[in-house]
Design brief:
single chain; 274 residues; alpha/beta; D-Maltodextrin-Binding Protein, domain 2; 2 domains; three-stranded antiparallel sheet; 45% helix; globular; disordered N terminus
Length: 274
């Protein structure tokens, strides 16, 4: 009889323990689900590296120097932001059209590549505060006297990377856009007469002329308003802390005069002030 009582007590203890363990497991699973995805800033800090997508072919924003080193205004801005966040910066060189797909897929944390804020991108990404401002140049061959304004693009052919703001702007004025990989290919098509014009950053035009003074092209018109250059981050509450941290870094770099110094170094003027 006594053995039966002991056995029964032992069995009940095991059942209660199992139920308690199961209940605890369910509670932990529920808490894990409620916790949601880990913050991107936390992931970056834990791995100790900020992964930045950039083209590496768009001087003076991001390009290779004579030693084949990745340099440029955006390259140095990204490095300075990494320092402020207390992490290393790893650059992944990607063609323009693949940058945003990589950010969406989580392969890259951000891009620092002269990205302008437009309505479509603003709906999809959380943008940081602007760190640069630039006007758009309408560039044509030096003997082209037909195109004198953006309105004259109606029915014309332009060359630009297809997902760029410049391609969208050209299409808004009625132009057909030929897709290219970079600025060099764009200028080659323009000088060969295979396209009528291209749209690009005014500062990039002057930088190209500095290296290629005999280039047969000119600026036909400039946009009146400057566009805002900022850093896009994947949308989501879990990514807002990264946006806030980068905003803090941008503010400090501006107040310390670092952004102005880098702008003067690469553009010969300060494009970091509105």
């Amino acid at each position: 009889m006594r053995r039966r009582v002991l056995a029964l007590g032992l069995a009940m203890t095991m059942v209660i323990g199992a139920l308690a363990f199961t209940g605890c497991g369910k509670k932990e699973q529920k808490e894990s689900k409620n916790a949601g995805p880990k913050e991107l800033l936390t992931e970056i800090q834990e791995r100790g590296t900020l992964i930045v997508a950039t083209e590496g072919t768009w001087a003076p924003w991001t390009y290779h120097n004579e030693k084949d080193e990745l340099v440029g205004f955006d390259v140095e801005v990204a490095k300075k932001i990494g320092e402020k966040l207390g992490v290393d910066v790893k650059f992944e060189e990607v063609e323009w059209d693949g940058i945003f797909a990589g950010i969406d897929a989580g392969r890259y944390d951000i891009t620092c590549n002269g990205v302008e804020i437009d309505e479509e991108r603003a709906k999809k990404y959380n943008f940081t505060d602007p760190y640069a401002y630039m006007r758009t140049a309408l560039i044509v061959k030096d003997d082209n006297n037909e195109i004198k304004s953006f309105e004259d693009l109606e029915g014309k052919q332009t060359a630009n990377t297809l997902q760029s703001t410049y391609a969208k702007l050209a299409e808004s004025y009625g132009a057909s856009v030929t897709g290219v990989d970079d600025l060099i290919q764009t200028i080659q098509l323009l000088e060969a007469g295979r396209v009528d014009a291209t749209l690009n950053a005014e500062v990039s035009y002057y930088d190209y002329l500095k290296e290629h003074p005999d280039a047969k092209m000119k600026i036909a018109a400039l946009s009146e308003d400057a566009s805002l250059v900022a850093i896009p981050v994947r949308a989501g509450k879990e990514n807002q802390s990264l946006v806030d941290a980068i905003n803090k870094a941008i503010k400090e770099l501006s107040e310390e005069g670092v952004l102005t110094e880098l702008s003067n170094k690469y553009f010969g003027s300060d494009i970091t002030k509105k």
